[in-house]
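yo

u said u wanted the structure for the complex thing, so here. seqs first:
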Amino acid sequence: MGSRASTLLREEEIEEIKKETGFSHSQITRLYSRFTSLDKGENGTLSREDFQRIPELAINPLGDRIINAFFPEGEDQVNFRGFMRTLAHFRPIEDNEKNKNATTSEPLNSRTNKLLFAFRLYDLDRDDKISRDELLQVLRMMVGVNISDEQLGSIADRTIQEADTNGDNSISFNEFIKVLEKVDVEQKMSIRFLH
Amino acid sequence: MDDRSVFKKANFFSLLDGSAGEIPPKPAGGVTIVPPVQPDGGPQAYPEAGKSNLPVFTMDYLRIQIPFEITLWVLLASFAKIGFNVYHKITVWVPETCLLISIGLIVGGIMHSVHEEPPAVLSSNVFFLYMLPPIVLDSGYFLPTRPFFENVGTVLWFAVVGTLWNSIGIGMSLFAICQIEAFGLQDLNLQENLLFATIISAVDPVAVLSVFEDVSVNEQLYIVVFGECLFNDAVTVVLYNMFSFVADMPVVEPVDVFLGVARFFVVGLGGMGFGILFGFVAAFTTRFTSKVREIEPLFIFMYSYLAYLVAELFAISSIMAIVTCALTMKYYVEENVSQRSCTTIRHVVKMLGSMSETLIFFFLGVVTITTDHEWNWAYILFTLLFAFVWRGLGVLVLTQIINPFRTIPFNMKDQFGLAYGGLRGAISFALAFTLPDTIGRKPLFVTATIVIILFTVFVQGISIRPLIEFINVRRTNRNLDTINVEIHCRHTIAGIEDLCGQWSHFYWKDKFMKFNNRILRRILIRDSRAESSIVALYKKLELQNAMEILDTVSGDISAAPSIVSLNEEKKTSAKPKRKFLAADLRNMHNILSKNMYKIRQRTVAFTGKHSLPNDTHSREILIRRHASIRRSLRPGSFQTSVVPKSHKYFSLPAGKSLDSNFLPPEQLSHLDAQETMSEVAFPSRRSRFGKPTRSSSKAMMPLRRLDTLKEAPSVDALDKDRPEDGRTRPGMSRINSSYSDSRVPASRRHFSSSSENDNGSADNFRNVHHETEEEEQPQLSSPPPGWAAEPSDSSTQNPLLRRPQWNPKKM
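structre next:
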């Protein structure tokens, strides 16, 4: 992204990001200023600590996982492109986009990609399966002390039972998609980005 | 209308005065006997003058007539309701309102044929003062607040602007039609048309809402239809009053229009203001009612009714007043009153609302037959047409305008649902009936209104369900599974929003919540700081659970999702593929939705002296997060290269206890070296109820705080289950061994040494120790050595456990 000296995004970069993610010009600039405000080290990239400085994120049960989602495998820093790429998952799906001729790759905010993002939040070990353990982990994190393990276990059991079609007691991505096919993921996993 | 009630009263009194029949004066001395009086003036029974024998059997109908008839009507309508629900299939396809109207029609037919006139319940006073408030209170009290406030802009937009659009549009078009000579409607002027149009733009989606619920349409559509109905009542009444006032005036000047607009704001905002005022007063009152629990529900009803009446006094929107009163009140009152009162309030509100509604639709049917109608084909048909057209247009145009402001825009299907769901109902009916008689063609209006209501309720009401399903409106799947995801999504979305530094309506919500916590709660809620909100919530939930179990289960206690029964089932099946009962699901749903962390509470800074409980909340989340990340970073499950990163990740050197950077409880994260979920952060694990044989799950131990309520009864269970500890040890050790030692501090806590829990009650949360060797060998029931002597190694202490205020036993 360049040194601090060139804090302004270059136009061609904005164009590229726009094409890749679908954000509008003003959204990109706004998010860029947010990016720079988070980037305390001023080196054009964000590290995990930068994210953790956001207080609300710190107490979000899924905070770490969300943060993790920004960082590609094995890397420690994320640049603005990567930042936007991840955020693009949450762009609302517009109707006219649905009709657009599908390019070779789906837009980042397609339903499948949104679901993939969510799936990856649960599937920490990236084996493309949400095992019962992983599910319990997530559930336990979300829920307070009021729920006994029994109850939580049965909730997790129920979840798996409903989704699991091949009987391996874990949820694969396809099963995940299938069980959510009636849910309006487009609504639930979308943020209206301010202009 | 006033005339009718006056007439009725006059009738009544005239009967007493003997104008309809001669009633002899009371016999001097002796027993006062009132002979039965025939209402229709038939021959009266004359007691003979001077006869003074004691009558064995007398009948005094007149005295009880009015309450008696009311009761009979109510009963009749309720029987009808029972009748429908006997055969469930009917209510699926035919909305209840249709059925009620049909029964009303039948009864009306009967009454008409015997020339009996229907009770004069449709005077304006009776309707607006007695029958409408319960319905509105019911709607307002059970309004789902979160979706409502998220969509409040849209709701108000449709309610206000939509109604205006409809009224004016229909009014104008009808006026245009009236100009056509052939229809014979010349005498209807613009004001009257506008008045009529206002009456029929009041949508009443009672039938639609139940269909929507059954079909589980998406939340936005549901709440917009719901909210629109509620608030457009207010707008309609305002417009109605305005137009009826104006209709009397020969000439309308522009200043009147301006005044009308001003009046609208006064009415709307005034209504809300009164509602909020009364809501707060009610909440404040309930703060002091702890000694008079029996009359707590009374306050709710009296205050809301008072809000309604006071608003009526000032001729501002009473509906808005009572709705806002209910909304405001509900939140605080439900914290102040006892559980029973809460249940009572809910039930009574529902009951009254349901009864009123039933009655109204019933009377609609009756009155349809028995009034004098004036039929004018042109007017009526055009009214139908225009109502339809303008509503459709209105929805279309308004959606286009408001969609850009919405997070989730309405698509065409939603719009169709919105437009088609515009049924007319009770309000239109009442307003039509109470039109002032000065309007010449009143019967025409009444007829037209009734036709519209019947048409929309029957045709649209019955057809909306198949249509909605056919066009496949976006649904909200209430499946438990997706509830999980839904809630998870919420956290994800909230996280992302925070990341972007965005404040959508969360911002205002947060602001309000701060204000709420800082000021309002302290004033309005009794004991708002007496105990940790988590504990209070927990106790309440346990109570509710217990009551639910008693309620929903008839006899077969094991069918209820109690902990005990869950446990027993687990014991009996190796890999239980349990049937999850509906009650189970509901419970799970309730549990989840009540217990999910609400991370948007930025309450840490605002709880003043008692910040501790709230801290715990976020600390717990932090603890769990750390734990789960650690766990997830096990070798073999993740790249090992990530391992060192995990430390950087948490700025916590491995093996070192958290220092003062974090609050003490976070030291717990070290302890989470344990593999299994349930041991994380809950050192007070106790195999109280035995362990499932599933290998992947460890000892299912109830949480410490569960103990507070279940302590006594389950002590025995505890003893029983003790021997079972050992069985799962192998499981645990297996998982243990997969754990890499390098990342575990030497002083590991072993929750696996949960045999210590057998130490009985209150102190079980002390069961953290250092026995590292226990990790390798399953230990059956070694008494917790370090139990009493809390190791001084601060890093292994779990202050969470020691928090005294959470253990009632300690108090």
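The longest strand of chain A covers residues 129-131. Residues 107-194 of chain A form a domain with the Recoverin; domain 1 fold (CATH 1.10.238.10).
cya
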